[in-house]
Amino acid sequence: MSAIVSGIGLGLYNGSASQIGRGLGGDARLGQGKDEQYVNIATGNLVLRSQDEFLTFRGLGMSAVRTYNSRGQLGDSGADAWITGFERRVQLLSGTLNTAGSIMRRHTGDGAYQDFTYVSPG
Question: Using CA atoms, how far apart are residues 48 and 40, in angstroms rounded to an integer?
Answer without folding.
Answer: 11
